[in-house]
Structure formats: structure tokens, C-alpha cells
Amino acid sequence: MDKILSYSSNPELWFRSLGSTILIILLIVTIGYFLPKKEYKVIFTKFIGVLLFIRFSFLHGYEVGLNHWNIFNSLPLHLCGISSIVCIIIMFNYNQSLFEYIVLLGIPSAIHSILTPQFIHGWDGYYFYDFYLTHGAILLVPLYLTVVFGHKIRRDSWKTAFINGLILAAIIGILNIIIGVFYGTFSNYMYLCTAPIADNPLLLT
Known about the structure:
Blueprint: E1 3-4, H1 11-34, H2 38-65, H3 79-92, H4 96-115, E2 118-119, H5 126-149, H6 157-183
Antiparallel strand pairs: 1-2
Helix pairs in contact: 1-5, 2-3, 2-5, 3-4, 3-5, 4-5, 4-6
């Protein structure tokens, strides 16, 4: 069951969760930056990629174990879910277009989510921590690649990101419909069918 966390509902937990996420991000970036040799930086980068892959795999195993996994909510087809996969890929094999995707589409969605969290399966057990691991990683990866390796987005990359965002939304929208046709209930990936229930003043419903 969806559950939200907002500053107004639980300011202490909201601040503690957000603050811990930011501190961990800064710690990892600092470690990578001060590694003395490039080969050490590369190894550390791949190590982070392995941890992100383990997190991704464990989440799905955790959902299956609790009998929570379902095609309507568990596929990584929300914008942050797609971004989490891109983060794994790019830590093993850098790609400029994927980097720009994370910077221009991943970061805004992660910030939006982490400031107004919505937990699809509630926040009991591992789900709470995974939410911040997932969205924190989306913020970490582009910052890490920028600070540690000096990667930057291209001047006109926002145009490509905008077009890719529209194409992605169209594809996910079609998948929502296909799932609805075959399973009798429409999924809501990328929140294209129903707006999030998160306490966010930017949502116009």
C-alpha cells in the first residue's frame, strides 16, 4: 500500500532521512575524488556499480519473498526505476548520452521523489531504506562522475533529453495500456494515469 512521508507529517524522520542521504553521497564522492590514482578511481567506480546492482537485485528478491511483486508496481518503469538501471550501466561503461539522461531527467525526478517520498509498498522493513538508496544513487552517480572524472553535459543536450523524455513517456504509456488489456487493471508507471499521492505543491490535480 502506498505511503507518503512529508515534512509536515514527520519532520524529524524527514530531516534525518534526507540528511543521512546527502552525507553518504558527499562521503562517497569525497572518497572517489581523493583516491590517488586513476586506476583506483576506476576500481572504486565499478565497486559502486556492483553495489547498485546488488541493491536492484535484492529489492526484487525481497518483493518476491514477501509476495509483493506484481506486474503493476514492481517493474522498473517509473522514471527513477529506469534511472537506477542507467546508473548501474554507466558506472561500468561510461556513455555520454546516458550521463546526460541522468543529469537532465534522473536528477530532477530523484530530487522530486526524495523531497516528497511515496513508498509504493509502504515503508516497513527494507522498503524504507531502499527508497533512499535508490534515489540517493541517482543523485550520487552524476555528481560522482562530474567531480571525480570531470564529465559534463553538452551544450544542447537538453533538447535531446526533452525529446527522449517524450518518447519514453509515450512508450511507458503504451505499456500501461498493454498491461491493462492483458491483466484487466492498468498499471500507473511514470504516474501517467494517476498522479502521485505525495504531499507536493507542484502536483496539479
